[in-house]
Amino acid sequence: MDNAVRDFFKAQRKAYLSLDKEIICSFFEEYGISAPDDENEMWRNICLIIIDMGGVPSETREKAEQWLSEHGYYLRKKTVKRGR
C-alpha cells in the first residue's frame, strides 16, 4: 500500500476514534474533505465507520452505538453469506 494511502487511513482512524469534533474537522481540513452540512449526518457516518472498524476499543464502540441509538438510528446487522 502506498505511504500516502496508509497515512490517510492512519490519520482517519486516529481522528474518528477520538470522537472529538475539533480533531475530526482538522482531519477533514487537512485532507480536503467536506463535512456534511448536517452535523447529525456527520456523526452518524463516523459512528457507523467506527462500528465497522476492526480493533476498536469496546468503550469507543459502545459510545458510537449509544450515539446512534440516542439519535434514532438503527445499527446495521452484518449478514453472513452462505455458499450454495
Furnish the topology, listing elements before pairings.
Blueprint: H1 3-18, H2 21-30, H3 39-52, H4 58-70
Describe the structure.
The chain has one domain (about 5-70). Helix 1 runs antiparallel to helix 2 (about 20-30) and helix 3 (about 40-50) runs antiparallel to helix 4. It has about 80 residues and is an all-alpha fold. It is built from four helices and no strands. The protein is globular and about 35 Å long.
Kindly summarize this structure in a few lines:
The protein has 4 helices and no strands.
pLDDT < 50 runs, ≥5 residues: none
Total helical segments: 4
* Strand tally: 0
Most strands sheet: none
The shape is globular
The fraction of residues assigned to DSSP E strands is: under 5%
Count of structural domains: 1
**Rg:** 14 Å
Q: SSE string, helix = H, strand = E?
A: HHHH
- Assembly of the depicted chains: single chain
State the secondary-structure class: mainly alpha
Please give the share of residues in helix. 55-70%
Mean pLDDT across all residues, rounded? 90
Gap between N and C termini: 34 Å
